[in-house]
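Q: What changes when uracil is included in the input?
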Amino acid sequence: MPAAVRPTAVSLLTPHYPVRSLANTGVVALGRPWAGLPSPPVKSAAERRELLKGVYEEARGCVRCPLHQTRTTVVFGNGNANADLMFVGEAPGANEDRMGLPFVGQAGKLLDKLLAEIGMERTDVFVANTLKCRPPDNRDPHPNEIEACQDYLRRQVDLIEPTVICTLGNFSTKLLRADSMGISRLHGQAEIRVIGARAVRLYPLYHPAAALYTSSTLEALRTDFHRIPELLALGPPEQPRAFEESVPELDELLVEAERPAGVDELLVEAQRPAGVGEPEPAAQLGLF
Ligand code: URA
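A: The predicted holo structure follows.
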């Protein structure tokens, strides 16, 4: 499915796939479990990319939790900034930490395979993690790390405005549902949740890494995965009540205030080919 066709796209799989039906409506929503300011109105693909780059530039220098001391690279996430479908995994592993990209190891290969089975590829989706930095020895994320990192994920969701978010495994499922119920009880059950500024179809799935070694888990993951096109075909859920027009200049509040000085130069630099040991920053956003 070509990614660049978003606003008027017609899915190969689902002829009535109503992508971005809220585009240009100016709708913003109430009800933000992660608090903060309301989001700006729906943006163009180019604006989304630019704004995501701004968040990435901030994350690149993040020292909000001790993981910055042991990481090689911040793994911000990558894919289509204008995607309807977003995946949220757990945390970068060793390969991801080295390359600066999410899901590049065996679990990532399985993710690619499952995507292909539903007629999609990485360039159609955005893939991120609960944590942007690798926990040493691939240990589980600690609560303080999740707490420190969640604002980046919230801002990614706010900017990308996906219709469907697939949480992969326990950590992202618990975070985005704000509940401790585990993935084995929840997998394959879509529900509408307000995340950040928007209502999305949240769809918990088993983590692909768990499916690598257990055939019953793989079977369940595949069955659940094959329902994703159906969910996408439903389009965005009804959004919470729109904000009044009196909301201040949100673009400036959310973006300019958070952009570090000199970010324009950083963005120009980000277009250069990567040096040894340093992944190309633009590639981390997948400018598809
Ligand atoms: N597992 C994850 O949860 N995320 C990755 O990026 C890789 C493996």
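Observations recorded in class: Residues 1 and 259 are 33 Å apart (CA to CA).
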